[in-house]
Amino acid sequence: MTTLQQPQHPVLEAVVAVTSALDQVAEANPAFMATDQKATTLVEIARAKAQLAELELRVLATADDVAAESAARDVAAWLHHHTHQRPEVLRADLRLASALDRSYGLVAAAMRVGECNPAQAQVITQALDELPADLDPEIKTKAEETLLAYATQFDPAQLRRLGRRILEVIAPEIAEAEEAKRLAAEEAHARKKTRLSMRRLGTAPPGSRPWSPMRPRTGSPPTWRRSPHPGARTAPAPTPATTCPTTAASARRSASCSKPSTQPGCPSTAETPPR
């Protein structure tokens, strides 16, 4: 009994051919390459990396059955388990793969020929996702084409800044209308969240009259000590300037009478009264 072998898919054959070709140059030393050959090799490697990345994303977008067969959460989790790559990077790749497969075929085609690298594709798809949902499909396609043309001249950081203003380039009148709607929504949100409230600044101690700017202050307000127990009040701290009026008057009379005086009616300590 013979077992029929399943023929290999062209995608798998291409990947095996790439890895086999790389195995053949595993021991080759690029130090002996000519300068122009090194330059050409570096550019071609970057192009090949973009092509391989697109192929990987294309396979990721259709690999739900791989995750289901092993009871993994998704193919990104399955790939993390088998390849030990960073999970957040794999999840980002899975989102990009879904976006390319679902909506952005032009970006995928540019990656397929090495004219757009994965970082640029990520930025372009994010910029296109941020466009208004009710935008005309033709305008959105024009935005995709314009950003892909920019990808041949600008890096991902520059593309991100260009993507924020892409609607102003391809459809200025729509950009102005969208900006007006955005500002109106922000004003409405701010008006909804803004409120005016008034409250008293502090509470007067029990038994004291509240201070008023129309009433002149005749004395210092009582000083309250902080209690170690939250919410508890303690008696006001004694202040040296607060004394009884009667005691103050007696102290003044004693001080005046303790000095020698020739005024009548005031006894002097310097003389002894007659007996």
List keywords for this structure.
275 residues, mainly alpha
Portion in beta strands: under 5%
Q: H/E order of the elements?
A: HHHHHHHHHHHH
Helix-strand category: mainly alpha
The proportion of residues forming helix, as a percent range, comes to 55-70%
Q: Indicate the radius of gyration in whole angstroms.
A: 43 Å
Question: If you average the pLDDT, what whole number results?
Answer: 81
What is the number of E strands? 0
Give a short overview.
With 275 residues, the chain is mainly α.
Report on this structure:
The chain has helices at 10-24, 35-60, 64-69, 75-83, 87-102, 105-112, 118-129, 137-151, 156-164, 166-170, 172-193, 245-257. The chain has 275 residues and is an all-alpha fold. The protein has a domain at 29-189. Helix 2 packs across helix 5 (87-102), helix 2 (35-60) runs antiparallel to helix 6 (105-112) and helix 4 (75-83) packs across helix 5 (87-102). It is elongated, with a radius of gyration of 43 Å. The termini are far apart. 13% of the residues are buried.
List the helices and strands and how they pair.
Blueprint: H1 10-24, H2 35-60, H3 64-69, H4 75-83, H5 87-102, H6 105-112, H7 118-129, H8 137-151, H9 156-164, H10 166-170, H11 172-193, H12 245-257
Helix pairs in contact: 2-5, 2-6, 4-5, 7-8, 7-9
Biased composition (Polar residues): 259-275
InterPro entries: DUF222
Coiled coil: 38-65
